[in-house]
Amino acid sequence: MSETVRICVHAHASSGLLCRIVGLFAQLGLPAPGLVVTVVGPSMNVEARFAGFGERSVANLARKVESFVGVEAVSLSAD
Fold it and tell me: For residues 52 and 42, what is the distance between their CA atoms, to the nearest angstrom?
């Protein structure tokens, strides 16, 4: 999979949780050139786009993010 992959996270609005999500990207050495965070009331949506991701790596990333306390849903799509 060489196209851009988009990961969308719906979670409770928390600066600590946002830091954990972005920190995971950093731990894995992933640049997030397209990172958008939207907070509405008690909810937060985080959208990141990564280029040249392997299919297995994307699934692993999604599973790790899903395991964070406060994350309600994670979706993946190819652009």
Answer: 33
- Residues found in the chain: 79
Chain segment 36-79, per-residue pLDDT in tens:
999 999 999 999 988 776 666 778 888 999 999 999 999 988 77
* Domain extent at residue 52: 4-78
Picking from 40, 42, 50, 41, the residue whose alpha carbon sits closest to that of residue 8 is 50
Q: Is the pTM of this model over 0.90?
A: no
Give the CATH number, domain containing residue 53. 3.30.70.260
Q: Computed from CA positions of residues 55, 51, 70, 67, in that sequence, does the dihedral angle turn out positive or negative? A: positive
E-assigned strand segments in 1-79: 4-12, 34-40, 43-51, 71-78
Say how many CA atoms lie within 13 Å of 65 toward its Cβ.
Answer: 29
**Number of domains, the chain:** 1
